[in-house]
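Hi there. Long-time user, first ticket. I'm pasting a complex I've been working with (about 443 residues overall). I'd like to know whether the download I got is complete or cut off, because the file seemed smaller than I expected. Thanks.
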Amino acid sequence: MFTLKLNTPLGKKEILKLKAGDFVELSGTVFTARDKAHEFLLKNKFPKIKNKIIYHCGPIVKQKGKKFEIVSAGPTTSSRMNSYTPALISKYSIPAIIGKAGMDDNVKKALKGKAVYFAAIGGLGAKYAKCITQVKSVYKKEFGMPEAIWELGIKDFPLVVGMDAKGKSIFK
Amino acid sequence: MSSLKNQIFNLLENTACSLPTDVENSLKKSASKSKGNERKVLNEILENVQIARDEKVPICQDTGTVIFFVTYNPKKHNEEFLRKEINSAVREATEKSILRPNSVDSLTDKNLGNIPEIHFMQGKKLKIDLLLKGGGSENCARIYKLPNSDLKAERNFDGVKKCVIDTVEKAQGKGCPPYVVGVAIGGSVSSTAFESKKQLMRKLNDKNKNKKLNDFENSLLKEINKLKIGAMGFGGSETALAVKVSTLPRHPASYVIAVSLSCWCDRRCSL
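Hi, the file is complete. Here it is re-exported in full:
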């Protein structure tokens, strides 16, 4: 159903080819970040996310011994991260953002020529959790479960290109 | 017979993991009416609902603000006991990853786990209704005081309609449409907001007993679906599943309108 397969790291050519409205399946590594994590990432140095994909998500995570297991992990509303995002893209060369319901014109400008915004389908916590194969690491756990930065291995994550690198958007 | 706490725990698990049948049926109807990408999105949603039910995992990772509406007979129960049982069940559900820890201390910013919102009412029999209210759609709720010159909304049903359309138009896809829309007319700012949220507890296929309100609900639903926001805001005809309207007596000087939105994942259940 989501025919175009993509793997991280995304190449610049690949990014520029993506068009708003394309249905894709993404595999590789992503880092979750919500409001609090964005503030932290901008105030501090966190080289681990250089060139990495950001996922606007606050998952439910189960701890089994030392291991973590993702129980439910759909997207959160991206517009809350509007004000942080242009600076984040430029500071860490973020190639793609995954979230819900699109972002504002300043983000659209920041994406131009170098990055894309993938729209995940809101509420698909159970389905997206099934596409998460591994919890690679967790940072800033003291922020609380939803606000921590979770490094996740994903396989065939169903997404729609919401805003492309040419300034086109599927959102109003 | 299991303890009340265990029954409340089961209620929490069912509500988080299993979408009410009427909501699921309404989504199926929307999927069958829709085309192209919107249909793809709605089918993904329905598949997700099935996975969550089969595997007993939360449908959405945002298990919301935990809101209880408790009716109890004061001759049989007291609030302190009921509150203790509810808090204990909520704690267990949070520990067992049925609920995401969703309560943040607004002063210290520390995550507190889950502090449920409990509304007590006295009645003959014990009845516990639960609403898991997602944050994305909650952020899209609005209050209006009519007349409103920006919307050219006067103190009549046409004015109310303008408020409801304004709320949904501004929400776009942020609150996870197709929405369930709860509207309250009258009351005061606090009671109106509460009344509009209570509308989200109604079965989607129920009929408003008041004919004027029933017709109004139907006409609002038609108008909202003309906005073409569509499932998840990707464009399409399925912007709302249902609209539910209620009225409260108002102060002669006031004409308050509250519009509450629920995401498609309208999670509610009763014990």
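A couple of notes from our side: The CA atoms of residues 112 and 181 of chain B lie 30 Å apart. The interface with chain A takes residues 37, 40-41, 43-45, 47-48, 51-52, 55, 57-63, 97, 99-102, 104, 109-111, 134-136, 139, 172-176, 229, 232-235, 263-265 of chain B (CB under 8 Å).
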